[in-house]
Design a protein that fits this description.
This protein is an all-alpha fold and about 90 residues long. It is about 70% helix and about 0% strand. The protein folds into 2 domains: about 50 residues, no CATH class; about 40 residues, no CATH class.
Length: about 90
């Protein structure tokens, strides 16, 4: 953790707070660490954070409302490509 703190000029206390906040977001908000950084959750309030739909939430809703069979098709890259190939603007 020290290497990360040194590289990005972050104090060790701030790094510990960020780690605690990321853990909170993962456990209670279903937010992956990469989403924490991509969506800039560090600078957002809890009220603002709930306005975002995370990958885990998206997957849960897809499975709940669209059924397991279609959910599997969306998770399989080849099946997804086969379903959506007419919309691709490039060779895949």
């Amino acid at each position: 953790m020290l290497l990360f703190a040194d590289k990005y000029n972050i104090s060790e206390d701030e790094l510990k707070r960020m780690k605690t906040d990321m853990t909170y977001c993962y456990v209670f908000g279903l937010t992956k660490p990469i989403e924490y950084f991509l969506l800039d959750f560090k600078s957002k309030s809890r009220k603002q954070r709930v306005q975002y739909m995370t990958d885990i939430e998206k997957d849960m809703y897809c499975h709940k409302y669209d059924g397991h069979r279609r959910f599997e098709a969306l998770m399989d890259k080849w099946q997804f490509f086969s379903l959506m190939s007419k919309y691709y603007k490039r060779d895949a």
